[in-house]
Amino acid sequence: MKLLEPGQLDVERMSEESSKALNFVRAWTDGEDTALILNVETKMLLLDTGTHQFPLSLNSGNERADNCYVVSPMTTYVGYANEEIKRLHRPWLAWLLTGLVSGMAGLLAHAQVDRIVQVNNWLLSTNVYPGDWHGDDIAEFTRLLAETFPDHAIAFRSLNFRCNRTLIMRLQSQGYVPVPSRQVYLFDATQGERSPMLCRHNTMVDDTLLRRSPYQIVHGKDLPDSDFPRLEQLYNQLYLEKYCWLNPQFTADWMRRGQQDGWLEIRVLRTDEGRIDGVLGWFTNGQILTAPLVGYDTSLPQGLGLYRMLTRLCLREAVARRCLLNFSSGAAQFKRLRGGQPEIEYSMVYSRHLPASRRQVWKLLGHISQKIGVPIMRTLKL
């Protein structure tokens, strides 16, 4: 088991499947002069266990103040938390939570929570782990990373008990602390065409809408490079302009490179005239599918149902693969109506090698998130 700098990567030693991680790390390094994700500042490494390869993000805590939540716990639990609080539309609760987040911000900064190395971090809203890896080598993982980065916390993002129970339990046995982050929605398509979600009224209506749509569904590999700036524009309209600028600011180059290197599979909705009005990109480990790239032209009438069609397209792919779809967070009611099942997502954080003051803040963050954040997410169905 060893850590590899980008310059040490040897393509010929990597299998076709695991080379996705290698390609991802190399793409990030190649894009140093022109950032692939505009609001992410991090260093990428590759962890090679001999059987699996994992991209690692490494942060010192001295990066940009608005660093994206995919690498910054400060942004996750302070910046993004404040954005979510604004959307609660419950003034009294927002007042209480704003005070709590403000108080925690000072503690988190003092504990240098952004001084962190994150394992299997693809810089996506939802990371998925190799389907045949359940953490048998966690002790060795932890020892290597703690010795190499003695002043950094060690974390695994995007874990939930439905998909990662064994891994979570093994991490806990090694001293990792669970820190809840958000509520995601899972669609079980493992029964293929017999999957219960397909019988939902809203799902069936969406299916009819997609089948009768005048749009052509075009594979990302068939798109010329000149189309990718349009995909960036569509993603920005939905995830940045409509939702939150703290979301990953993916560029056209990131999308093109992901499609080219095989870790992102893109589909678009294109009119007969050639205009692209919607984009969808998924990432999969064969057992779990997630869609980090979704975007559509928000200036078009809502009655067109572009988001509904993109959702149905994603569900269709999960059914074809007989896998679980992790459709991330947000649009909670929309996803529940189509059979999405809520699941709390965690980061597992190891800090036993750090000073006591920093360890205690991580434990406090985990405790507050579990006792206050999780009940709010479940009660308000966020």
Secondary structure layout:
Blueprint: E1 2-4, H1 19-30, E2 43-48, E3 53-59, H2 73-86, H3 91-110, E4 116-119, H4 138-148, E5 153-159, H5 161-173, E6 177-188, H6 201-211, E7 216-219, H7 228-243, H8 252-261, E8 265-270, E9 276-284, E10 288-296, H9 306-321, E11 324-326, H10 332-337, E12 341-350, H11 356-379
Parallel strand pairs: 4-5, 10-11
Antiparallel strand pairs: 1-2, 2-3, 3-4, 5-12, 6-11, 6-12, 7-8, 8-9, 9-10
Helix pairs in contact: 1-8, 2-3, 3-11, 6-9, 7-8
Describe this structure in words.
With 382 residues, the chain is of the alpha+beta class. It has two domains: 2-182 and 346-379, no CATH class; 187-341, 3-Layer(aba) Sandwich (Aminopeptidase), CATH 3.40.630. Helix content is 40%, strand content 21%. It has eleven helices and twelve strands. Strands 1-2-3-4-5-12-6-11-10-9-8-7 form a twelve-stranded mixed beta sheet, with helices on both faces. The chain is globular and about 60 Å long. The protein starts with a strand and ends with a helix.
Provide a quick synopsis of the model.
The chain has 382 residues and is an alpha+beta fold. Helix content is 40%, strand content 21%. The chain has 11 helices and 12 strands.
Keywords:
single chain; 382 residues; alpha+beta; Aminopeptidase; 2 domains; twelve-stranded mixed β-sheet; 11 helices
